[in-house]
């Protein structure tokens, strides 16, 4: 797929993106977060909106406040509550007094946004679009540049540098398809994603992302027509991943496809495989892995041993 790359951005300073928009890239690069989380500073009538405050890193919080300079930060807005986007919210809110806005139903235990947004609601000129799939509480935001150009803050739903992990139960493949279709019906000119550089001609990528998942789904169905499959084993067959984190991410995506096919009535779940599979044993996620892949490690390991097969043909 035509993903974009970029050299390591300068740390600790605001980088011009588009008129009225700068980003500060957090110091959390990894195989899942690319160069780090993008924290966007957006100029609005009465000051600045900070979209995705970033990970819980006081150095990053200080850099975002410095980047704002003498312009007051009026709102903190979240695309979703994964820790690499949400972690700095409390510290930044405390330092600035700005309220935190996010989807009305938070998936982060113990956290409720000060301003709960619903699909279609507007905050500081940004229109929220509920786009579950990568995360149940994911919002994209429509925004207009000073010259009237319409753009979208696409969070982790559509990223310029990589496809998104869909990790049940926070992630949901059926929702993800629907949220991609929602964007295909729209006409934003640029996407600014949670990780990676600006994306031009974004709907071409959205179409490819959807086609890629549909291809993957057909492949999984074809495999299941031959035999029942355990998630870890099928994932190892379909994805050639050696990095432990990417291996785990591949398993989460395969599980998400299985559960979508189950919800649609094609596939049923059988008793799990009780013997640990080599591809589940060697997965030792580095710190912070759960943030982007969802759930506890023990759950992920158990999920990897879940077994699925085609629904028995009705007589
Ligand atoms: Zn995320």
From TrEMBL:
It comes from the Bacteria. Residues 36-195 form the Metallo-beta-lactamase domain. InterPro entries: LACTB2_WH, Metallo-B-lactamas, RibonucZ/Hydroxyglut_hydro, Sec-metab_biosynth-thioest, WH-like_DNA-bd_sf. It holds the Pfam family Lactamase_B. Residues 269-295 are annotated as: Disordered. This is MBL fold metallo-hydrolase. It comes from Acidocella aquatica. The lineage of its organism: Bacteria, Pseudomonadati, Pseudomonadota, Alphaproteobacteria, Acetobacterales.
């Amino acid at each position: 797929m035509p993903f974009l790359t970029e050299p390591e951005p300068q740390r600790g300073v605001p980088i011009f993106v588009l008129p009225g928009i700068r980003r500060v890239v957090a110091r959390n690069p990894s195989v899942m977060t690319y160069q780090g989380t993008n924290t966007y500073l957006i100029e609005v009538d009465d000051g600045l909106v900070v979209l995705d405050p970033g990970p819980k890193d006081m150095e990053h919080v200080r850099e975002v406040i410095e980047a704002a300079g003498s312009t007051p930060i009026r709102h903190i807005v979240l695309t979703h509550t994964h820790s690499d986007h949400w972690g700095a919210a409390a510290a930044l809110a405390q330092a600035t007094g700005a309220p935190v806005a996010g989807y009305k139903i938070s998936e982060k235990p113990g956290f409720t946004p000060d301003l709960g947004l619903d699909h279609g609601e507007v905050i500081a000129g940004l229109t929220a679009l509920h786009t579950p799939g990568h995360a149940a509480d994911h919002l994209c935001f429509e925004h207009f540049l000073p010259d009237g150009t319409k753009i979208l803050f696409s969070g982790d739903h559509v990223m310029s540098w990589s496809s998104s992990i869909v990790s049940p139960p926070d992630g949901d493949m059926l929702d993800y398809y629907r949220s991609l279709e929602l964007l295909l019906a729209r006409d934003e000119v640029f996407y600014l994603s949670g990780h990676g550089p600006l994306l031009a001609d974004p709907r071409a990528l959205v179409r490819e992302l959807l086609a890629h998942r549909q291809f993957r789904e057909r492949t999984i169905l074809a495999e299941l027509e031959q035999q029942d499959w355990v998630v870890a084993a099928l994932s190892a067959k379909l994805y050639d991943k050696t990095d432990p984190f990417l291996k785990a991410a591949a398993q989460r995506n395969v599980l998400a496809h299985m559960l979508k096919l189950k919800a649609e009535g094609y596939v049923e779940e059988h008793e799990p495989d009780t013997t640990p599979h080599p591809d589940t044993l060697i997965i030792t996620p580095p710190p912070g892995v759960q943030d982007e892949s969802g759930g506890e490690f023990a759950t992920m390991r158990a999920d990897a041993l879940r077994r699925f097969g085609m629904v028995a043909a009705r007589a």
